[in-house]
Design goal:
The complex is a heterodimer of chains A (253) and B (842). Chain A is of the alpha/beta class. Chain A is built from nine helices and ten strands. In chain A, helix 3 packs parallel to helix 5. Chain A is globular, with a radius of gyration of 19 Å. With 842 residues, chain B is mostly helical. In chain B, a hairpin with a 2-residue loop joins strand 7 and strand 8. The chains are: A alpha/beta (253), B mainly alpha (842).
């Protein structure tokens, strides 16, 4: 469902010149699977996911999502994914209902179909008691629910979550993780990026460890632990990062 | 692009804006309260000045003539246009017989003691007399004092004669004394609590009576009349104080009527008709109807309001829908929905446009009805010259709406593009303020009385084409000329150019919105050193679009700065050396101001100056086309300019000098060709088809790049005729450069084209005055007129056909794929991949 091959992105920065943010990243995600993208801040997770959501254009390589190339058919890709990150805020001057309805319409849902879908989503996410509240007056948890509702309103086959739990308290974070697990069980193809190890262990079927724009290791949790002879995913992560940084340093010298 | 998405975005944005209190206030509330508020304030001020009585002191009342000026303690009601005015002037006199009107009725005057007031008035009078004497004494020696003395001189029309300062006169001392007296006078006047002081000189009434008698006796044989002393009452006021000025105007009004009364008595006594005193006796007849007077006022007000409010209405919503969306973190939410970027831009643009139009319309309605109301209110109190102030006709209102749309469109697109670039509301305001300044400047230009559209004024077409100025001028003309005769011909160019500018601005907005750098701009600390570093370090083979724009701006600035220097160097040149001087300056200008910036920038800022300046060897066929095309285009361009002659303003002197030099046969032809054909061919091609076109075509849109480069090429020529010509020729030159991917055919074309112009000028001068038979068979193709050689229709037909064929051939040539920015960017990371790969494997 998602097939990423040699995705590369270079930014131009005033201070450092051309900075590679993504370095030939490749991976695949199948339906009914949560693929975890694990990496520290600035590893290139957001850049990668922004390219998959066609907000940014890659400077090299490509990605096929639900059968469409992100560079060639961005509009087709966008209508088949749900994307949520901590950069996708909600409109302050709209109510929860209006906001979700608006995006439903943009995703080509209309009339009865849209209304049914909205009732279903609002019921599942337990949003009915604040559906007419302006988003500006909502708590963080409510806003997050609106975001999730916005992400899944068009029932997309592919979903991308970019650190959806960052900045949330434990209760809300748990709700978000539960919601994503339900989506996986419904057969969706899901990418989940985070820097929190425990979420990876709970949620992800396979993990890619990303650091400084490159994928250092990839596989299911057990595969990774066996390969690198390390039973704890956190330790595994530090080991790989140290290895990579050490190699870079030695090349630089 | 679908209308459904645009409509969805538009509706959401409108609802969002309507829920924003700031926007609502600015768009709906402010216009409704602003004008009534302003009007009330102004009315209050006018009322205060009108209704509040002012104090006038009259000294020397015993010297007044018989005809009574003062009755019942006031200036008599009959000496005013409106009898009520008499009540608004409190008169205090030094007479014991006249009852004063200051009877402590008014709170402001209750503490006024008559003696104090009179003493103060006497001190003022003393100082004023001294000041007047000193001024009269010094006037002949100082031009500035003479100006002030004009009204003080003993007889009204006596001119002050300029004299040399006599040795025994302490001129500086007296000037100093005059200055001191003046200061004292101002102080004393301000502290005296009187607003105007009239002093009647001793013997004034008797002198008037004497003249009356002399006239009545009709005894003009002796010169008694001329021997009588000229006595003039002195009236002191302070023009810098509103109250004093109002009081003065009232006193002056009554004095003028009173003077008429005196005159009437005098003539009656002498048994002479009134017309003796008024030999001219004109009958003023004003044919302006109410509608015309009102239209004239509206034409000065509405266009300015239209421009300013259209911009204000676009300004804040634009910042909110673009920068505000980024600031609130919802931009990415919108970008990941299936709507394309163009749909998003259009939806938001239409929102801004809607608010801009709504703001303007509300402002116009509010302003129109307020001023109408105010006029009707003030009219009941006093007569005004505005009449009933009818609102503009339905036709004029329709035009306002028609012209508002492109104007609001331009502002909306520009504001939106600028606001997209900004990261936050605050930053948006910084970027948009300059736009406001420029719009204000252009509006003021359009509102100046000497600038107007008319079919007889050549420059009108240029005003039409100017953004903002065009619509403002057309509206001004349509409001005055209610049925629109004579100006409607300008509607088409104004609307077309406005729509053109709007589309250009909208295109820029879409480009802004598609740029990742703009949408995801991180806030970095700007550091000049870092930026320069980046500029020289991260060079690319060809310049970026912004570098191309910068190059053009540098050229324009240099051009602007050099105007003065070039003008200076022309001063004092002998006529016979003029030609050589013009040639020198033309060459220096080309090399220093046009070629140098482009060459330096190409060397410093790009990796490949060769690729930037297209220093490649072209196919031979392009060189052949570059020689053939000018031959066909020169006659066409020449005749086109002649046909459009009346639309262009007069040539400035500098341009006339240049054309004269081109036609000057005393100079060696090689030098003239070198200066006016070869040098521009090389320099301008390097700059416009080299650096600027390379930079502009980076986006991959060659068509727009050619268009923009030819517009810049036109603008640099400054003179309207040349701007027009060069822009058209620039299109062909750009096409040749892009198709051949070489600078050489362009240089050749430019050389041939300009050489044709030089030869045309020289031959025109040579052939003029010779018999037509001299032309031989050529007379089938050309004719010689005082304006130069003109081409016959048959020549033009041949030229048009061949030019069409050649340009068609050029367009059909395969497009040489220039390495665009995308390709360059993809190239860069690949190199890096290899490095990294090598690093990791080693």
């Amino acid at each position: 469902m998602i097939s990423v091959s040699k995705l590369t992105k270079t930014f131009n920065d005033l201070k450092r010149g051309n900075v590679p943010a993504l370095n030939a990243v490749s991976f695949e995600v199948r339906p009914g699977e949560v693929f975890g993208l694990l990496g520290p801040n600035g590893a290139g997770k957001t850049t990668c996911l922004r390219i998959l959501s066609t907000v940014l254009r890659s400077t090299g390589g490509t990605a096929i999502i639900a059968g469409y190339d992100v560079n060639k058919n961005p509009a087709q890709v966008r209508s088949r994914i749900g994307f949520m990150s901590n950069n996708t805020g909600v409109y302050d001057r709209m109510t929860a209902w209006e906001m979700v309805e608006y995006f439903g319409q943009l995703y080509d849902l209309e009339g009865e179909q849209l209304r049914e879908r909205m009732h279903a989503v609002f019921a599942t996410l337990q949003m009915n008691d604040f559906k007419d509240l302006l988003c500006a007056k909502m708590s963080t948890g409510m806003k997050q629910k609106v975001s999730i509702a916005r992400t899944i309103i068009h029932d997309p086959p592919v979903m991308i979550f970019d650190e959806p739990t960052s900045g949330l308290d434990v209760l809300v974070a748990r709700n978000v993780v539960d919601a994503i697990r339900k989506l996986r069980d419904a057969g969706k193809t899901i990418i989940y990026s985070t820097h929190i190890m425990s979420e990876v262990e709970k949620l992800c079927d396979r993990v890619g460890i990303i650091h400084k724009g490159s994928i250092l290791a990839m596989g299911s949790r057990t595969e990774l632990c066996d390969q690198h002879n390390e039973h704890d995913i956190e330790e595994l992560f530090f080991k790989l990062v140290d290895q990579y940084d050490g190699l870079q340093a030695s090349v630089a010298v | 692009m679908t209308w459904k998405n645009i409509r969805l975005i538009l509706l959401r944005e409108v609802r969002d804006q309507l829920r924003d209190r700031r926007t609502l206030f600015l768009v709906l509330v402010l216009p409704l309260i602003l004008y009534p508020g302003l009007a009330i304030g102004m009315l209050q001020m006018a009322m205060y000045l009108n209704e509040h009585p002012q104090v006038a002191v009259i000294l020397g009342t015993e010297n007044l003539p018989e005809l009574p000026l003062i009755e019942e303690g006031r200036i008599a009601e009959r000496w005013f246009y409106n009898p009520e005015t008499a009540q608004k002037l409190l008169v205090v006199t030094d007479s014991s017989t006249i009852r004063d009107s200051v009877d402590l009725r008014l709170p402001g005057t209750s503490h006024l003691k008559k003696d104090e007031l009179l003493n103060a008035a006497r001190r003022v009078e003393q100082l004023a007399q001294t000041y007047r004497q000193l001024t009269e004494q010094l006037a002949p020696y100082d031009a500035k004092i003479a100006d002030e003395a004009f009204w003080l001189a003993s007889a009204t029309n006596q001119q002050v004669k300029k004299k040399d300062i006599p040795a025994d006169l302490d001129f500086n001392g007296l000037v100093e004394k005059r200055h001191q007296v003046h200061e004292q006078l101002v102080d004393e006047f301000a502290n005296s609590k009187l607003q105007v002081l009239a002093s009647i000189p001793a013997g004034y009434g008797r002198a008037i009576a004497q003249i009356d008698e002399l006239l009545a006796s009709k005894d003009f044989s002796n010169s008694k009349l001329r021997e009588l002393p000229t006595l003039r009452p002195l009236v002191v006021r302070n023009r810098a104080s509103d109250k004093s000025e109002v009081a003065y105007r009232r006193v002056r009004e009554s004095f003028d009527f009173w003077e008429k009364g005196l005159l009437f008595h005098r003539l009656e006594a002498a048994n002479l008709p009134m017309t003796v005193a008024d030999p001219l006796n004109i009958v003023p007849l004003d044919i302006a109807g109410e509608q015309e007077v009102a239209a004239n006022v509206w034409s000065k007000v509405f266009p300015a309001i239209l421009v300013i409010m259209a911009l204000t209405g676009a300004f804040y919503p634009a910042i909110d829908v673009a920068a505000g969306e980024k600031e609130r973190g919802t931009m990415e939410t919108l970008l990941i929905c299936p709507a394309t970027r163009s749909e998003i831009v259009l939806g938001k643009f239409l929102t801004v446009l809607l608010f801009s139009v709504a703001t303007t319309v509300l402002n116009l309605i509010s302003m129109g009805s307020t001023s109408r109301y105010i006029v009707s209110v003030t009219q009941s109190a006093a007569q005004t010259s505005f009449g009933n102030m009818p609102l503009p006709t339905a036709m004029a209102i329709c035009w306002m709406v028609v012209l508002l749309i492109p104007l609001a469109g331009l502002f909306s697109a520009l504001s939106f593009a600028l606001a997209t670039f900004a990261r936050s509301n605050k930053e948006g305001q910084y970027y948009l303020t300059p736009l406001f300044m420029v719009a204000l400047g252009l509006t003021m230009f359009a509102m100046s009385p000497s600038i107007e559209l008319s079919t007889t004024a050549g420059q009108s077409l240029f005003y039409c084409m100017m953004p903002i100025v065009g619509p403002a001028l057309l509206l001004k003309a349509l409001l005055v000329n209610t049925n629109g005769t004579g100006v409607l011909v300008f509607a088409f160019p104004v609307l077309m150019s406005s729509v053109g500018y709007t589309l250009l601005a909208l295109w820029w907005a879409v480009e802004q919105f598609k740029s990742e750098d703009v949408l995801f701009r991180e806030s970095e600390r700007f550091d000049l050193g870092l930026w320069l570093n980046h500029l020289f370090r991260d060079k690319e083979p060809t310049p970026t679009t912004s570098e191309a724009v910068a190059c053009f701006i540098i050229m324009m600035l240099l051009q602007f700065l050099s105007i003065n220097a070039f003008g200076q160097s022309m001063v004092g040149v002998k006529p016979e050396d003029m030609g050589m001087k013009v040639i020198q300056l033309a060459v220096i200008q080309q090399i220093a101001l046009i070629a140098s910036p482009a060459i330096f920038m190409a060397l410093l800022l790009t990796k490949s100056a060769r690729q930037t300046l297209k220093l490649n060897w072209p196919k031979f066929s392009f060189l052949a086309a570059a020689i053939a095309l000018p031959l066909a285009l020169h006659p066409l361009a020449n005749e086109l300019l002649h046909a459009l002659h009346q639309f262009f303003p007069q040539l400035p002197d500098a341009a006339k000098a240049a054309f004269a030099t081109m036609a000057d046969q005393s100079l060696p032809l090689a030098i003239v060709i070198g200066a006016f054909a070869l040098t521009p061919a090389i320099c301008e091609e390097v700059a416009f088809r080299g650096f600027i076109l390379s930079g502009l075509s980076r986006g991959g849109r060659t068509g727009i790049a050619i268009l923009l480069s030819s517009i810049t090429f036109g603008i640099i020529h400054m003179i309207p005729q040349q701007v027009f010509n060069a822009t058209l020729i620039g299109l062909v030159l750009g096409l040749i450069a892009v198709r051949s991917n070489s600078l050489l055919p362009g240089v050749l074309f430019h050389l041939c084209f300009n050489s044709m112009a030089v030869l045309h000028a020289q031959l025109s001068g040579h052939l003029l005055g010779q018999p037509e038979s001299e032309l031989g068979p050529a007379r089938w193709f050309v004719s010689v007129t005082p304006e130069g050689i003109r081409y016959m229709p048959i020549t033009l037909g041949v030229c048009a056909v061949s030019a069409f064929a050649l340009i068609r051939w050029l367009i059909r040539q395969p497009h040489v794929k220039l390495p665009t920015s995308a390709a360059a960017e993809i190239g860069a990371p690949r190199e890096m991949d290899d490095h990294q790969h090598a690093a990791l494997t080693s």
